[in-house]
Amino acid sequence: MSDEESRLLLLVDRDTAQARLVGSIAARAGWRTQSVPDGITALAYLASDEMVQPDALLLDGLVAREDSCKLIGDLRGAAPQVPILFLTQSASPLLAVEAMRAGATDYLMKPIGSERLLYALESSVVSDVRRDELAPLAEKIEAPLDFDMMIGSAPEFRSALARAAKAARGHGPILVAGEPGTGKELLARAMRSASPRAKSAFLVLHTAGMSAGNLESALYGHEKGAFPGAFERRTGILQEADGGTLLIDDIERLPLSLQARLAHTIATGEAKPMGANHSFRLDVRILATSSEDPVMMASHGVLDPTLGEALAACTIGLPPLRERHGDVPSLARHFLALIGEQPGLRRLGVTDEALCLLESYQWPGNLRQLQAVLFRAAIFCDRDALTVQDFPQLNDLVGETIAAPTPPQAGGVTLFGPDGHLRTLEEIEADVIRLAIGHYRGRMSEVARRLGIGRSTLYRKLGDLGIDNAA
After folding, report:
1. What is the CATH number that goes with domain 321-401?
2. Which among 14, 101, 185, 419 counts the fewest CB atoms within 10 Å?
3. What CA–CA distance (Å, rounded) separates 334 from 123?
4. Cα→Cα distances 208→25, 123, 124, 250, 290, Å
5. Which PROSITE patterns match (predicted)?
6. Other beta carbons less than 10 A from residue 152's beta carbon
7. In this predicted structure, what is the pLDDT of residue 146?
């Protein structure tokens, strides 16, 4: 293997344009890329003593098509130590299961995003966890997109859901901030589903991997001849989402000049395609995701101040999974239920000891990584329930720090504090109210009715308990 400063990626892909894109993305993290067009050439490369052996291999499923799993097995046999990343445009989880059982380390969907590829590459070479259950996977397991599917009882998380449920009913821009894998896009989609625009157009712009020029054209569109290569007119995604909702993923990736332009569009409802002499009016609700709070990003020059001010009016922060360890058991059971519905898999339980192990890990990849770990374990489990033995690398990493069982809960509300003593009645009451607001999607009359108190009493308690911002 090569050293860390010159990691080598062997790309098996006959699409030259995609090969250039992958090479460009990988280069950002210090990777060199060697491309080969087919499986035969790749196997010859791996068998050669004269070639530098790769640190990872990326296989495009179009190279071998229906024989992809056989090729993965051949590649695994030729290079047992090399992580194999499988790239496909199929949305079928069954293919992921078959690829994993054939020897693939990870599974990526087209169109490939730069953040996702870099995360997969980095995960493939991290110390002792290469090729193990901690790599990302299972990115396309679908779930109903509503607030009832947002699992967790941690107070900060329930407060975020309560604010999101209330904000969903409005029309202004919303920013969901949080680390990668915390469920930002899922929450944004749930808000759209609970909004007055639920039946109108909903479009998503993924900014990762797009150039500044392409981002501007994607947002606003362009006229024929607006720039070299603009051979025909293009309608922007803002115009396509007119009357509905547009989700901009990783909004901080937009160039500052484009951010300022977007802020103007939010304020005025006007948009002008590139190269056009006219503008048009829009009615589009903007939802966005980012890795950080907009005020902080604006102060560091990452976000345009005007756009940051517009988004700061309604920003919902999602906590990382390491700050809501008590939610891991319920999340694990939820993910296992979804995984069990996928073709080629079955419904599995999980032992208390395994749940304690899962709770003890810090989960740098958050919900996405937890789901991936469970998906990988479910693929190879031949029992009715997952045990500690199904997570060998995780067990090695956590060692003696396995957490004690989660304290008793009532309806998703924690009764005991970290010291083992009962929490105060005020703390428990605040959690119950947050839980009710999230469960009933911010419908305060329903919350008050279900709690058996008057609406005015509810609002007074929100103020007294310091959770008025969650209402």
Report:
1. 1.10.8.60
2. 419
3. 25
4. 10, 19, 20, 7, 12
5. RESPONSE_REGULATORY (PS50110), SIGMA54_INTERACT_3 (PS00688), SIGMA54_INTERACT_4 (PS50045)
6. 25
7. 63
The ranges assigned to domains in the chain are 4-129, 155-317, 321-401, 409-470
Paired residues of 269 in beta bridges: none
- CB 245, CB 201: distance < 8 Å: yes
Alpha helices by DSSP H, listed for 168-293, are: 184-193, 212-220, 237-240, 256-268
Averaged over 401-420, what is the pLDDT?
59
User: What is the per-residue pLDDT across 88-98, written as a single tens digit (0 to 9) for each?
Assistant: 887 666 777 78
Rounded CA-CA distance 392/64 in Å is 32
Closest listed residue to residue 468, CA positions, set 423, 428, 437: 437
Distance CA 126, CA 114 (A): 18
- Nearest Cα to 108, choosing from 145, 57, 54? 57
Residue found by looking up tokens 């179009």 in the block: 62
Residue whose pair of structure tokens reads 């949305």 in the numeric block: 91
Question: Residues 193, 195, 199, 202: is their CA dihedral positive or negative?
Answer: negative
Closest CA to 176 of 27, 13, 315: 315
Burial class (CB in 10 A: 0-12, 13-18, 19+), 317: middle
Q: What does the DSSP 8-state code read for residue 280?
A: E
Nearest to 154 by CA among 316, 292, 319, 291: 319
Bond before 111 cis per omega within 30 degrees:
yes
- Cβ atoms of 295 and 128 within 8 Å: the answer is no
Closest CA to 355 of 337, 370, 376: 370
Q: Which residues pair with 314 in a beta bridge?
A: none
pTM: 0.69
Measure Cα distances from 341 to 10, 139, 237, 335, 338 in Å: 34, 15, 34, 10, 5
Q: Is it true that 4-129 and 321-401 share their CATH fold?
A: no
The structural architecture, per CATH, of the domain 4-129 is: 3-Layer(aba) Sandwich (3.40)
CB 150 within 8 A of CB 330: no
Fold of 155-317: Rossmann fold (3.40.50)
CATH number given to 409-470: 1.10.10.60
| Model confidence band, residue 1 (pLDDT cutoffs 50, 70, 90) | very low
What is the radius of gyration, based on Cα positions, of the chain? 24
Q: What average pLDDT does the segment 159-184 reach?
A: 91
Give dist(CA 388, CA 352) in Å, integer: 9
> For residue 248, is pLDDT > 90?
yes
* Cα dihedral sign, 320-321-323-324: positive
